[in-house]
Design goal:
The complex is a heterodimer of chains A (233) and B (768). Chain A is built from 7 helices and 10 strands. Chain A has 233 residues and is of the alpha/beta class. Chain A has a 10-stranded mixed β-sheet, covered by helices on one side. Chain A has a single domain, classed as TIM Barrel, CATH 3.20.20. Chain B has 768 residues and is α/β, with parallel strands linked by helices. The longest helix of chain B is centred in the middle third of the chain and has 31 residues. The N and C termini of chain B lie far apart (86 Å). Classes of the chains: A alpha/beta (233), B alpha/beta (768). The interface between A and B is medium-sized, with 29 and 29 residues.
Chain lengths: 233, 768
């Protein structure tokens, strides 16, 4: 499996200690991508699954869960499935971070996932305009699939000031159903599209205001900033 | 008056200029000569005649020396006795250290040499005479006492009398350094800010440090420190404040009341407290008072258990109010050495531990009120209140940096019943990173182990009695070994252990001297009255149970230098463990040989990690294996993995836990995910796992914070810009320096802060 590395985290699976595996390769080219080194299919390094399993096992005394993030993990869905099988054996919880472009592949493994964090990057009909890929309908399908499964669903949007506005956030909120919705702060330190270095970081207050506006629609909202951490609104 | 008027009326020859000894020209003064003649006892007529004669004879550029010869010769013709007196008045003057100006007197040098250095009178006379000859050659009007002493020292060295010179020399600090201290302060200790008290402390420290190196320690031992083979901590306190830290027993003061001066002679004496607020007050005063006698931290363990009888029947809010007062008191007592906030630690229990349940409990007025088992609820309430107050932060929203708050995890605590209490503590960890955890589950534990925020530790494995082993005593002193240097000097493993052995032997000698000095300060000099006061039929401070400890820095770099790989390599690690085991074996031998309590500690090397690395870079160049760069090199602390290690948390635990059972004098694991903030529930889950599944004995979750001094916004991580008001300069950082959380000193107005080595380390700490 091609992976970009792994870390131990208290944040990626809320309330749990997790080991996070970053897979390499992504089908999208979001201009604000903050892991651009993981986009190429040949990014990261080839790690045999056995070795990855050993690392998970070595950590298993101190973790509750495994998070598979990326890149887009579902580009290597067979290996993802094997990891999930292994987690079941070790009695570890599982979480998948995905961009939602592969609802069919997602369906194959949804029963093995305790938690799915799904990017909703734009209102479904504005994907082309905002991230340059017309995949909105696939994402919608993924959202519906997970919401109707036993898995916990977190939908999340990175708010990028120059690419979207409050109406877009509201638009997203009206189109989706999820267990929690997270607004993430755009940060201009590491991006794919150089033009975005000029875009100011989203502020906590901006996110807070949006969150309050959509709270009546979605119920449980989280905002995530570097300066103030995770705040449930 | 009459004389003065006459003198004033006498005309002077104003144009003539006199060349003085200091090379400055001055107008010839008729009056000056007149005065000096009168002072020597000459009659007015003679004085006037001599002065007028001098005025007539003087030429431009005449020297004072010439004038003095004329006057002397003339006075001699009037009366030899007057001339002699004139000479005496006008001869070399010495500004003494008693703030007086006296005539140079050779016999004084002789006398002081005999008194201060035990010099043979013949030698003293010889040296004094030679000094007199030197001084005459100097052609100066006055000397200062320090200059004169230096001349004497030079003569002593010339005669090969080094032992006498060491006794006779003067200790102090160059003018330039004092100016620098006043203008810029020092960053040796992150707990100290820049103010008049710190200036006083540093100036005094310098003299006392030199005193220890020169007078208390034999050359060989002083050199071992100076050259960086090892580090003697708190050298400035070696002579007069030799005892490091103390774990108090609050019960002693509940039963007996409090005399802060130890004697009751100079201060008001308080009887046994009757009310929780009084006891809170006393608890703070006890630590403030004791730190006046000591060089290190003050700690109270089992704090909430011993406090519990005073909370009986009180509403929660009242208990919390009392706790809040205590915490603010500790943080606002600006009263330790050099106006530091005293270094205090409080250890708390989540429940009354098994071994205390049947112990007699002392309550208001020091009365026996049952056993501690009866105060389970109050014990828990006090812990909760304490944690809540810490969570609130100060009035600006910053963390309370003191006391270091230490939570003891026992098997019975890791149950659902305590989930709420544990969750609150982990919120504190997540918010400020200030909580510490003690793990009582590993096999190497007895019933009791107490720590301080700096990580020094005691366990009930000395006599086997928890009270004797853990309370009313502490670490007496520790010495830190420069491990990487041993590797630079050794060709093979055998040599490595030979060096280790020789460094250990030097350290033993130093620790024994420190102990002698401590015992002398306690028993003979009568200067540690708080520690020597009698409580419950014995001396409060139990020196017989205090620890003498070997510490170390840079195991990782030692292994890299010797094996080529650091601690992450299992083979290297094996050697690392062997090194620490060797130290432990030596400590065991010493226990047998001396009957004293020897331990091993992971030194909290706040400055030492930087000092060793800088000296070694200088000495060994690129052969030295260091962290950091040209601006600031440093070694990795103790047996920790480097702060930028790429190993996972689990791998770090599995390596570092092996050292905790081997360092009973103190250790810490920095559970440090690399995230700028953490999820409290996930931390709680991790705590549970570390306690149950590892041998880690003591740890904390580090959490870097930023605080905007301008708009009082607290942020996570190390931020350069305030997220609220955009301020860039006045954003201060907080993180754990070695043991305790402290201000980094980033903001423009910051006073004090981390040293260069630790600053560099902070930037290298791995975060995402």
């Amino acid at each position: 499996m091609r992976i970009g590395g792994h870390i131990t985290s208290t944040l990626e699976f809320p309330g749990h200690m997790s080991i996070v595996i970053f897979t390499a390769g992504c089908n999208l080219r979001c201009p604000y991508c903050h892991n651009p080194e993981l986009i190429p299919m040949d990014g990261g390094e080839e790690v045999p699954l056995d070795k990855l399993f050993t690392q998970v096992e070595e950590s298993s005394d101190f973790i509750d869960a495994v998070v598979i993030s990326g890149g887009e993990p579902l580009l290597q869905e067979k290996d993802v499935k094997k990891i999930l099988n292994h987690c079941q054996e070790l009695d570890l919880k599982t979480k998948l971070d995905t961009n939602g472009c592969y609802p069919k592949k997602l369906k194959q493994i949804i029963d093995q996932l305790d938690y799915v964090a799904l990017d909703v990057k734009a209102p479904f009909d504005k994907y082309e305009e905002i991230i340059g890929a017309n995949v909105g309908e696939l994402v919608r399908e993924s959202v519906d699939l997970v919401y109707n499964s036993d898995s916990f669903l977190e939908c999340r949007t990175t708010y990028v000031p120059s690419l979207m506005n409050g109406d877009d956030i509201k638009g997203i909120a009206q189109e989706i159903s999820c267990d929690i919705y997270t607004l993430q702060q755009f940060r201009n330190q590491m991006v794919l599209d150089e033009k975005l270095y000029q875009t100011p970081n989203a502020t906590r207050d901006e996110l807070y205001n949006f969150a309050n506006k959509i709270k009546p629609i979605l119920g449980k909202i989280k905002i995530k900033t570097a300066e103030f951490g995770d705040e449930i609104i | 008056m009459k004389d003065a008027r006459i003198i004033a009326a006498i005309p002077t020859k104003a144009e003539t200029c006199v060349l003085k000894n200091n090379g400055i020209f001055e107008k010839f003064s008729h009056e000056k000569i007149l005065k000096s003649c009168l002072m020597a006892g000459a009659p007015l007529w003679a004085a006037e005649k001599i002065a007028s004669h001098a005025a007539r004879t003087a030429y431009d550029g005449v020297t004072t020396k010439e004038i003095k010869i004329w006057v002397h010769d003339s006075l001699k013709q009037v009366k030899p006795k007057i001339a002699k007196k004139y000479l005496k008045n006008n001869q070399l003057r010495v500004r003494t250290s008693r703030d007086t100006i006296e005539s140079f007197d050779k016999s004084k040098i002789e006398k002081t040499l005999i008194v201060e250095t035990d010099a043979d009178p013949v030698i003293a006379d010889k040296i004094a005479t030679e000094v007199w000859k030197e001084v005459k050659k100097l052609d100066v009007e006055y000397l200062t006492a320090p200059m004169l002493r230096e001349i004497v020292n030079t003569k002593l060295v010339e005669h090969g009398l080094e032992t006498l010179r060491r006794r006779y020399t003067r200790l102090g600090i160059p003018v330039y350094n004092i100016t620098n201290l006043i203008e810029n302060g020092s960053r040796d200790n992150a707990n100290m800010i820049h103010n008049p008290e710190t200036v006083h402390k540093y100036v005094a420290d310098e003299a006392l440090k030199q005193y220890a190196l020169l007078h208390i320690l034999p050359n060989e031992l002083a050199d071992a420190h100076m050259s960086g083979d090892l580090h003697i901590h708190d050298l400035e306190y070696f002579a007069g404040r030799p005892i490091n830290c103390l774990q108090h027993d609050l019960r002693s003061f509940i039963k007996n009341g409090l005399k802060v001066d130890g004697t009751g002679d100079h201060t008001s004496v308080a009887g046994p407290p009757n009310h929780i607020e009084t006891l809170m007050n006393h608890a703070g005063e006890i630590m403030l008072a004791a730190q006046q006698n000591m060089s290190g931290g003050q700690s109270m363990s089992l704090w909430n258990v011993f406090m519990a009888p005073f909370a009986q029947g009180l509403p929660y809010e009242e208990v919390k109010q009392a706790v809040q007062m205590f915490i603010y008191n500790l943080n606002m007592a600006y009263a330790a050495r050099g106006s530091q906030v005293p270094f205090t630690s409080i250890s708390m229990e989540f429940t009354v531990p098994e071994f205390l349940k049947e112990e007699p409990a002392y309550g208001p007025k020091g009365r026996l009120v049952g056993t501690y088992d009866d105060f389970e609820e109050e014990t828990r309430i006090l812990q909760r209140a304490f944690t809540e107050v810490l969570l609130d932060g100060d009035s600006d929203g910053k963390p309370h940096l003191f006391p270091n708050t230490i939570y003891t995890l026992r098997k019975e605590v890791l149950k659902d019943e305590f989930a709420e209490d544990l969750k609150l503590v982990h919120e504190l960890s997540s918010k400020y990173g200030t909580a510490y955890f003690v793990n009582m589950l590993p096999d190497y534990r007895g019933q009791m182990a107490n720590y301080m925020g700096c990580r020094t530790s005691l366990g009930d494995n000395w006599t086997g009695n928890w009270d004797k082993d853990c309370l009313r005593t502490g670490n007496l002193a520790y010495i830190t070994l420069n491990l990487p240097r041993m590797a630079y000097q050794s060709r093979d493993e055998e040599e490595l252990f030979e060096y280790l052995d020789s460094y250990l032997r030097l350290s033993e000698e130093i620790l024994m001297i420190r102990r002698q000095q401590s015992v002398a300060c306690l028993d003979d000099y009568n200067m540690l009255p708080f520690l020597t006061q009698e409580l419950d039929g014995e001396r409060y401070y139990r020196v017989e149970n205090s620890t003498m400890t070997f510490g170390f820095v840079g195991l990782n770099e030692m292994l890299r230098a010797h094996c080529g790989t650091g601690m992450e390599d299992p083979d290297s690690l094996k050697l690392g463990l062997k090194v620490i085991d060797y130290m432990n074996r030596r400590a065991q031998e010493l226990k047998k040989e001396t009957g004293l309590r020897w331990t091993i500690i992971q030194t909290p090397a706040e400055s030492t990690a930087h000092r060793f690395a800088m000296i070694d870079r200088e000495k060994y160049g690129s052969a030295a294996v260091t962290q950091g760069d040209l601006d600031a090199y440093y070694y990795t602390n103790s047996s920790h993995l480097p702060v930028d290690t790429s190993l996972s948390l689990a791998e770090k635990i599995r390596i570092e836990e092996q050292f905790h059972s081997r360092t009973s004098g103190g250790h810490i694991f920095h559970a440090f995910m690399g995230e700028s903030h953490s999820d409290p529930e996930a931390l709680m889950s991790l705590t549970n796992k570390i306690a149950r599944k590892s041998n880690i004995g003591f740890w904390a979750y580090s959490s870097a914070l930023s605080f905007c001094m301008k708009c009082k916004t607290l942020m996570k991580g190390l931020q350069d810009t305030c997220a609220s008001c955009g301020e860039q300069k006045e954003v201060e950082w907080y993180d754990r320096i070695t043991g305790y959380v402290q201000q980094v000193g980033r903001s423009k107005s910051a006073s004090g802060g981390w040293n260069a080595g630790k600053m560099k380390e902070l930037h290298d700490r791995r975060r995402y």
